[in-house]
Design a protein that fits this description.
The protein is α/β, with parallel strands linked by helices. The protein has seven helices and ten strands. The chain has a seven-stranded parallel sheet with strand order 6-5-4-9-7-10-8, with helices on both faces. It has a three-stranded mixed sheet with strand order 2-1-3, covered by helices on one side. The longest helix is centred in the last third of the chain and has 19 residues.
Amino acid sequence: MINANPQRINRILIQKTNHRDKKIENIIDIAKKNSLPFSFLPKEKFKKFEDYSHQGIVAYVSPVEYTELEDFLAKEKQYKKVVILDGVEDPHNVGAIIRTCVCAGFDAIILPKHRASLINATVEKSSAGAVNHIDIICVNSLQNVITTLKNNDFWIIATVMSEADNYYDIDYTGMNFAIIMGGENSGVSSTCVKNSDFRVRIPMYNDFNSLNVSNAAAVIIYESVRQIQKKK
């Protein structure tokens, strides 16, 4: 199963035992080689899988094929528009953002393999099938991705809460760009913010700053669309 297409595997669960047979060791080696998250669960927690013939191993598999970053960058297009999700863990938010990106004509979504919701059935349903209409790129390190994007003429735009330009005051036209949206609780990581070229915020009023991340993404995404369409 893992050898067939490791990129589709989001997570592997292995039942704890006093003895690891060769099959388990091989799966662990393959998981490490392909940077696949795996963890061990005690036997009692594996009971929820008792309706399946699991033999002590369960894998959560993405319903879509992930795209390699290099393959995406090799595609010919004048300007590319990307959204990076930095720690967005709610699958409903991930699905909603993907749906917005497809409707707005964005080219790719980039997700970290850890500390994020990868593509599962809930994300697929929340996206209303949009996961099948956009490149979804799953990576080990967002910092490496940012460096690679910059080396390929991308401008990086991080969303923050303060000390930033208003999202409508920067020019999204005539360039490749990636918008980083932060997690529900922690926002964009300090490292990603530090390595960004622009920092933008959505003005908040009445001392209330709890705009949902999928709504915030839609606001900024469609501002970029407005500017691009106006420029044509």
